[in-house]
Amino acid sequence: MQKLTQHPMIRGGFMLVALALIVVSINFFYAPHGVAAGGATGIAILTQEAFGVPLGLTTLIVNVLMLVLAWVFLDRATTKRILIGSLLLPAMLAVMPQVKIVEDRLLAVIVGSVIFAVGVAINYRIDASSGGTTVPPMLMQKYFHIKPAIGLFVVDLVVCFFNIFVSGIEAFVLAIFAISLTGLVMNYVETGLDRKKAVYVMTPEIDAMKQMLDETPEHGLTVQPVIGGHSGKSSEMLMVVVDQQDFHATVERIREIDPNAFILAVEATEVHGGWLR
């Protein structure tokens, strides 16, 4: 993806697709049901519900204010990076009509969250942004050393909270559900669906363990020298990379050789290079 998006035209194409997905999620799913799930578009939905102001106009005003903040308090590179998305998104929101294509509110939020997450994740993968409330978390990080993820969650939570006064408590609950589901889907889109497990094994039966794992060539296998923290003794530790569906079978084979083997398994969201079939 990184090499592919280095070309300006291809990168621009991906950005347009990402923004189009975000607009579809807002105009077809969130806005028709009055659910403001954070961000500048969430503020725009609240303003439309309360005062009838068009989504595109409010989003543009919020994005311009955020661009000014970025220009004054952050750096020029950040401002330029979010400039195009900050202006294109409200324009696309204004052009695309709002249509309630799903009557069920919960279903609309679920579908809208998935589409929104895919759009935002594509932007992240090409290092682009639709601007808006991504700026305040950067300011929080710079001046108060608050992690951007926490800052963004706080900003979105505040926007979601105002659903109570504009659209009711149900809209607030749905908005919280939406940002949670969006975060979950984004995590899978950004890191890929082909997930693996990295399994670390320490056992006195190291030779038998290596022989058993050698017989399953679909697994990656690495032997690492280690030193016990308490005992100070040198030993070997195996690192096995397995597909998600093979994890439990691999652990069972390890336990057949040594029921007391030390096993540590961690999520490997991306595996690049090396020898792994």
TrEMBL record:
This is DUF2179 domain-containing protein. The lineage of its organism: Bacteria, Bacillati, Bacillota, Bacilli, Lactobacillales. Residues 219-273 form the DUF2179 domain. It is found in: Cell membrane. InterPro entries: DUF2179, N-reg_PII/ATP_PRibTrfase_C, UPF0750_membrane, YitT. It comes from the Bacteria. Coiled coil: none annotated. Keywords: Cell membrane, Membrane, Transmembrane, Transmembrane helix. The keyword Transmembrane applies. Its main location: membrane. The chain crosses the membrane at residues 12-31, 51-74, 105-124, 144-165, 171-189. GO terms for cellular component: plasma membrane. PANTHER family: UPF0750 MEMBRANE PROTEIN YITE (PTHR33545:SF9), UPF0750 MEMBRANE PROTEIN YITT-RELATED (PTHR33545). It is a multi-pass membrane protein.
